[in-house]
Amino acid sequence: MSFCVKCGKDCEESLDGLCIDCWLDGRKLTSLPHHVDLKVCTNCGEFEFGDRWLRRDIVVAVQDAAANAVSVIRDADLVSQSTFAEEQDPYVFAVTVRSTCSVMGYEAEDEASTIVRIKNTVCRRCSRQLGSYYESILQIRTGSGKLSPEEREETLAMVENSVARQAQTNRQLFITKMEIVTGGVDVYLSSMSLGKSLTRELGDAFCADTKESPKLVGQTADGQDMYRITYLVRLPEYHVGDVVVFQGHHCKLVRVSSGGGRVIDLGDFRERAVRRADMTEIKLYEKASDLKEATVVSRSGSEIQVLHPDNYSTVDLRVPEGAEIGDSVRVVSIDDALYYVP
Ligand SMILES: [Zn+2]
Ligand SMILES: [Zn+2]
Fold it and tell me: What ligand is nearest to the CA atom of residue 121?
């Protein structure tokens, strides 16, 4: 037990010889600088906090900027804060921060005020984006020579979704521009790693061939070589549903995935797995959309009779066990013979 040197009261604990009440009397626990500058990017509207840029409502940003600037004296610990902002003009806010602090196990409140000034600037990401900065180019092409509008839309949607997802944790990642060129589309990207991850993603999803070629574009200020990388993604000519040739067999392609594919042999209707590494051996024979329809005349066991779509002669076709046969079937002509396409 000790006593306060100022008021003489007995107290269990003392600071500088004073009881808590005498110690707190007239003492400032918190302080704020005269003003706090808060940077806002005029392009994306995000606010700078330390080394991060964050999307905030302006009043919340102003309050956070003031609260972050509060300093608390050594003997006190901050417990909680509440903040009140008053707009003086669109770029100037008067802000009061009320802080609850703990001192010697007691809670005490204090208030400090400042002026938060909004400063217009352009963040690094936006200045790069506005300056058409890029580190890699993703070239999307196809084995058939010309990327169809559907292929272009499908791959670009995948690229845009992936970039949006990755940009949530790394705001330096963005698409600089997309350019439709002869044979496909070029996507300019803000980083090499982004080009690499998109190439892997597209390669997996479409079983596409990929290639990367670095190009020396100059040197940095400290003499390091600076590269840009062009990533080429060549989509296969074939799609699910097409008739393809695989290892000498005419097959219907029924599945394409990152692990490989599956085909049904048109000769014996057996289904086979195709390893990812063997997918490049698959050659397009006839697109699904080009397959012809043949009218079914009759059915007997594992055979059906159809009218040949070119000359209307009656032709026998083998069909798989238990196949559901409607009024017409899809067929493909291989070496002058007609085959049923399941
Ligand atoms: Zn006292
Ligand atoms: Zn910005």
Answer: 2
